[in-house]
Design a protein that fits this description.
By secondary structure, the chain is mainly β. The chain contains 2 helices and 14 strands; from the N terminus they run ββββαββββββββββα. The mean pLDDT is 96. This is dTDP-4-dehydrorhamnose 3,5-epimerase.
């Protein structure tokens, strides 16, 4: 596994190193020892997945408030997504900065998202599926979000939004502090 720093503090792209032969390939997508050595969380209590019918489906921007903040490891298992994270940790040198990543099925990449980040993605193909490792059980009372088009961040999405839940469309603009 290769761990590639992003422009946001503590967020990492993880690249698997597939072994190929005449049958196809095999790769390790999680290794407690290697992740711990890289300073990443290694305990995940939930494995979630989502399926999205249409291109232009946006899910986000979600986070969980402390003490229920989550580390997530995101993998696109079918189709393609533009995954966006925002650093919402006031003490971070990259506070209020965002970065986007294109992930696609078979690209052997995962996105490691630390606690204190908002996360969302836009599907770039029909019939797209996403897998999430999550470090903390979902707690409805700790749920928070930021509107996907909040002018505070000016996120440049990699396509148009055609499907979004009422809840995600109604998140408020971010208020620092």
């Amino acid at each position: 596994m290769r761990f590639i720093p992003t422009t946001l503090k503590d967020a990492v792209l993880i690249e698997a190193e597939p072994r190929e032969d005449h049958r196809g390939w095999f790769e390790r997508t999680f290794c407690e020892e290697e992740m711990a050595k890289a300073g990443l969380a290694t305990r995940f209590v939930q494995h979630n997945s989502s399926y999205n019918h249409a291109v232009g489906t946006l899910r986000g921007m979600h986070y969980q408030r402390s003490p229920h903040a989550e580390v997530k490891v995101i993998t696109c298992t079918r189709g393609r997504i533009h995954d966006v994270i925002i650093d919402l940790r006031p003490d971070s040198p990259t506070y209020m900065k965002w970065e986007g990543f294109d992930l696609r099925a078979g690209d052997h990449r995962q996105l490691y998202i630390p606690e204190g980040f908002a996360h969302g993605y836009l599907t770039l193909e029909d019939a797209t599926a996403v897998s999430y490792l999550v470090s903390t059980a979902y707690t409805p009372g700790a749920e928070g979000g930021v509107r996907w088009d909040d002018p505070t961040f000016g996120i440049a999405w990699a396509g148009g939004v055609s499907v979004i839940s009422e809840k995600d469309a109604a998140w408020p603009d971010y208020t620092p502090g």
